[in-house]
């Protein structure tokens, strides 16, 4: 099995998860960008908000899994 086959199989298996990850990242970065264009805050706060996206990502998808499990 070649590397191209391995990658295509991985993408085929995880397509919906990869799309939702991408959408979350794009929405988070857009919100932070718009907020800091409006507020004109310090650079360190901008980077902290971007890093907070990691925590927000895991918190959002963890709570989504919990909600699905309770149904």
TrEMBL record:
Record-annotated membrane-spanning stretches: 21-38, 44-64
Entries under InterPro entries matching the protein: DUF8119 (IPR058432)
Keywords: Membrane, Transmembrane, Transmembrane helix
Origin superkingdom: Archaea
Domain DUF8119: 1-71
A Pfam family matched in the record: DUF8119
Identification of the protein by name: DUF8119 domain-containing protein
Lineage: Archaea, Methanobacteriati, Methanobacteriota, Stenosarchaea group, Halobacteria
């Amino acid at each position: 099995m070649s590397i191209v086959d391995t990658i295509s199989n991985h993408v085929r298996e995880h397509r919906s998860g990869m799309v939702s990850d991408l959408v979350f990242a794009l929405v988070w970065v857009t919100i932070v960008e718009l907020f800091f264009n409006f507020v004109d805050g310090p650079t360190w706060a901008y980077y902290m908000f971007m890093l907070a996206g990691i925590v927000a990502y895991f918190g959002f998808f963890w709570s989504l899994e919990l909600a699905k499990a309770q149904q």
